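Reagents: none. Just compute today. Membrane protein implicated in regulation of membrane protease activity.
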Amino acid sequence: MGALLWLVAGLVLIGAEALSGDLILLMLAGGALSAAGVSAVFDPPLWVDGVVFAVVSLLLLFTVRPVAKRHMFSRPRLATNTEALVGQHGVVVSAITEDGGQVKFSGGVWSARAAHPGDRFDEGEAVTVLEIDGATAVVWKG
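Predicted 3D structure written out:
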């Protein structure tokens, strides 16, 4: 009978974890399922089941949970929008100086300016986008 109670407790904790997503209840469910297994195989007194539940739950909380959280919640950052354009290579459409010009990259023509004062890029030269400043690509020879 004790094994059935621990099994039900484990399943309820797994269901509750689906709503919370913090991995604490899942670790407690692991402890409850371990206690259910011990209770089904050895049929010990209830306090032994409680000790198994506590020890396994604490081990899972302090060893497995930190690793699982690190893998679940820290994903590599994906560059989007203008961040994804930095580093793109383009071709100068109209001469680029520190005051302006145009460059074609990533399927479109962008207004552009040179990254360093005094730099000039003539039509047809290859440039690299250093940053996006508003709607202007800041480019350099690279």
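The radius of gyration is 30 Å.
Action item: order primers for follow-up constructs.
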